[in-house]
Amino acid sequence: MTSRNSFWASLKENNKRRIWIWIVSGLLWFLYYPVSMAMLMGRKIEHNHMDNLTGEAAKLRLTEEVGEWLEVGNGITAILVACMAIVCAIQGFSYLYSRKKVDMYHSVPVKKSRRFAVIFTNGVLIYFIPYLVNLLLAVLVAGVSGGMNGTILGQAAIAALMHLAFYLGIFALATVAVMMTGNLIITIFATVIFLGYELAIKLLLETLEMRFFSYYSTYSADTAVYSSPIYYFGKAAFTISYMGEKIGSGFGDAFPYVLAGFMLAVIFTCIAYYCYRKRPAEAAGKAMAFDKTKAPIKLLLTIPFALGVALAVNSIVVSGAAFVIFGAGLAVIVGNCVIEVIYEADIKAAFRKKYQILISGGCVAAIASIFIFDLTGYDAWIPSPEKLQDAVFLLPNAYNGQSYMDENLQRVSIEEYALSKPGVTDIEAICELSARKAVEGEDGNSAYIWVDVAYRMKSGKVVWRSFPVSIEEDELLDRITGSEEYKKTIYQAYDDTAYERMAGQEVEEVIYTNGFRVVNLSPEEVQTIRELWKKDMENMSYTDFRDEFKCGVIDIEWKVRWMNNSYYIDNTSFDVYPSNTNLRKYLEEKGIGTENYVDIEQIASITVTNRHMEEEQRLYEERRNEMGDAEAQLSVDREDLSVTKVFTEEEQIKELVNAMYPSRMNTWWKRSGTFSNDYEVEIQYKNGEADSSVYRGSTNARLIADRIPDWLEKETAYQ
Amino acid sequence: MIEIKNISKSFADILAVDRVSVNMKEDTVFGLIGTNGAGKSTVLRMVAGVLKADEGSITVDGLPVFDNVEAKKKIFFISDEPYFFANSNAAEMEKYFSTVYEEFRKDDYYRYLDSFGLDKKRKINTFSKGMKKQLALLCGICSGTRYLLCDETFDGLDPVMRQGIKSIFAKEMEGRGLTPIIASHNLRELEDICDHVGLLHKGGVLLSRDLEDMKCNIQKVQCVFSTKEDMQKGMNGIEIIKKEERGSLYTLTIRGTREEIVGHFATVDTIFFEALPLSLEEIFISETEVVGYDIKKLILG
Q1: Confidence band (pLDDT; 50, 70, 90) for A250?
Q2: Which residues of B touch A113 (CB under 8 A)?
Q3: Is the distance from CB of A540 to CB of A577 less than 8 angstroms?
Q4: Confidence tier at B229 by pLDDT (50, 70, 90)
Q5: pTM given for the model
């Protein structure tokens, strides 16, 4: 027999006070799971009849629908779980808002720990029992309808476990919010703030760094929100959804996130319990339960708010320090006053704590100064060779057009991929290049490339910087880009392990394009092409890429398995340079010419437009003294200086083709002036083919400056 | 015994209770009287273990009360606005209290409900304010706790109910040593119930006495002296708290037992002498005036 003072008796008693929420939860999950499932199955069975689908095909349609509904990746379920968690937490502990209720509950001989455990446990049961029962009913409905299999059952079980972890996290976090506040409105605000504060702060800091630090690398942005259950659930759900049918391995990969989610829930529960024990009874009805937290919370809210306002004003007025200072100051005052009014529930209390306004303003000014004056020496920092282990170099556009995948064939960003690889170990070159940061724009004749570098320190710390280096840093850039580590990082196909993973996938399409023409290759050739390309790449480095003009690009599209039964297309690109002798020879043997971009025989004419940029600039300079900047620009814009000529002579076409570089091909890492900015070129083919949206094909080109025929300037001279 | 030693409690900048020390003995009815804002509810909430005193200590039969289940087992607290579960009835309240008070006496509870005419199945939110107070008192009485803390619980109860509760108190006090502690802002509400009274004012204790002692130690006398010499003789040798003179009629409030006072005036030649009984109100007026307070303004309104 159960003692009338037992934990279970207490649970039962507490549940009597929470009947309505049991009903809400039961109804919600009943409608969401078995009812919706029955409707879904009914509709899909009807579709099968209409489409005359029978047997496995019909079953597949049903199982796909059931899988999508029951899997953890279903966002609607997650939203419902989160809402239930917040409602249950607030409802369970809402007695703390009422003095009457607190007087009763806290005067009876029940241990605080018992009361907390009872309310907390019931809060979880209110969600999980109706959820589980209705999920099983939905499984039953799906099974009876023929839309269930073992895989989906496994997915549903994993989803239930992960939803429980997610629920616990949000529920415990909302409980902390209840403990720290004294009324419903403030609790809801607090819950939202707890969920999003870390992310908001990270975004704010990132924006400040981007705005004020010259060498900030966007790759250093840390988007992980460690204090939010949403983050862990999202990561785990994405991983599992990604793995599709491979339930075991999918859950294995997601397990650390699930575990972290549970751990976070435990931490929040401990905080909630501590606050519950410490919460004074007189907090009922007040905005904040603990007086000691009032000032720090006010600071933690007003400082980022004011900095955010300052950044927003700064982005609107572009330059105008007075406006920014005014905006930040106003935000500090308004933020402090509003929070104080909320704390005291009295409009007259707005300016009661003037010293806090001053402290808040001082903090905003101090933090802003750190960024504005770079007090931490962010931009001046260069790694110490003794402390540096290696570095990951990301040169712009070297990885253009490629997508990167991890060992599970899950698409990852370049920085994630790069950081998973060994970095460049030529410490001397790394440090020297880092010390030789160029100042962009200081020398008008030089060209720069912005490099992103992840310095991996021996301590395990990773420091990102993004800085310009002169395009003429041949020796250092050659040393870095010529290294195996660099190539394996940037060119996924260069790394045997990474490539083997890709090679296990089905090839959708292989093409070679030179920017004008697209030629299809056979999927069977992929292995050979890759081997030849790798062989050629072994001897290539920065100066080769800079000084040579690409012949073309080989693009391999892989069918990579995506969620459940779907696929996505991933691609691997091999740039073909003149010095890729092995690969070019292979292509030539296949009848794919790599010498010329276009067959002169096929060209009817070439239209060249000379925009006369220099003349335009001269006119602008001449007129700006009389008319002012804007008027002078307008006047020059109105006066069209461009001259267009069509060339049909074979000799002229030959010379023009020799100078042409397809517009679709990128021109990174080239010295300024490599391409003429004056000329625009368009090819007209004899067969009438015009520029179209044909993938990777174009009729437009740029002209390489030192190959422009002398006669072209005369022919297109401005009269 | 509930021992309150030097407790203080502030809410933000407001000092609600200022170094209060009172002992609430067993087997008596303790009345805690004071104006609104005097700190009665705060003291009771601290005694009930709901609030934590900023300073000082409260023990219930030697056990500190805050966050102590063993001490709380000895206490039932009826706040000024007793809380009953939403849409609940008297029977459901019994079920709850039965789970938290091990010695809750169901049979007595239902018997009392019957005798007070409270329907156990009727929703409490349809009860009148007085009925809710009766129900709260019955819950407290039947909880089996030694101490029953009532905050303004008797205010507004009709005389019949007061009499009923009073007789239950008497029975419970005799039977199991119940010690009711009743806070009120109205002295007249406590007069016929309390044995001991503590007067709170502005967060502090103005006085704390047994009513019987107070009544026995203060006398009201009306007399007309034969001569001026007799008047001087009569006024000497006794502690006069208050003196009123209307023509030759003197009304004196004097500290001392009835025997002492009557004996004193027997030695004086008086034309008229009468020793009158004092109401609790008059005793309070006299006692508090001595320490410089106008009790009429404080609690009699």
Answers
A1: low
A2: none
A3: yes
A4: confident
A5: 0.82
Of A95, A118, A87, the C-alpha closest to A281 is A95
- In DSSP notation, A400-437 reads TT--EE-TTS-EE-HHHHHHTS--B--HHHHHHHHHT-
pLDDT at B206 over 80: no
* Number of domains, chain B: 2
Q: What is the mean pLDDT of chain A?
A: 88
Pairing verdict, β A411-412 and A404-405: antiparallel
The number of folded domains in chain A is 4
On whether both B45 and B132 belong to a single domain, the answer is: yes
Strands A603-610 and A679-685: antiparallel
Q: Which residues of B12-38 are buried (b: 16+ CB within 10 A; e: fewer)?
A: eeeebbbebebebeeebbbbbbbbeeb
Backbone φ, ψ for residue B272 (5° rounding): -140, 135
The last residue of one of the domains, among B174, B209, B244, is B209
Using CA coordinates, name the residue in chain A closest to B13.
Answer: A291
**Residue A233 structure tokens:** 């659930």
Q: Are residues A93 and A202 in the same domain?
A: yes
ipTM for the predicted complex comes to: 0.86
Measured between beta carbons, the chain B residues lying within 8 angstroms of A282 are 11, 51
Predicted confidence band at A2 (pLDDT cuts at 50, 70, 90)?
A: very low
Contacts of B140 (CB under 8 A, 6+ apart): B76, B77, B78, B148, B150
**DSSP reduced 3-state for A174:** helix
Q: How far is C-alpha A164 from the chain's CA centre? A: 27
CB pairs under 8 A between A and B: 71
* Domain termination residue (choose one: B160, B187, B209): B209
Residues A232 and A364 in one domain: no
Q: Write out chain A residues lying below 8 Å of B75, CB-based.
A: 107, 109
Interchain contact, A17 vs B85, CB within 8 Å: yes
For tokens 């809801």, what's the residue?
A: A188
More confident residue, A691 or A379: A379
Instruction: Search chain A and give the residue with CA nearest B73.
Output: A109
Closest to B197 (Cα-Cα) out of B183, B182, B186, B210: B210
| Three-class DSSP category at A694 | coil
What is the span of the domain harbouring residue A574? 496-540+549-595
Domain extent, residue B59, equals 2-209
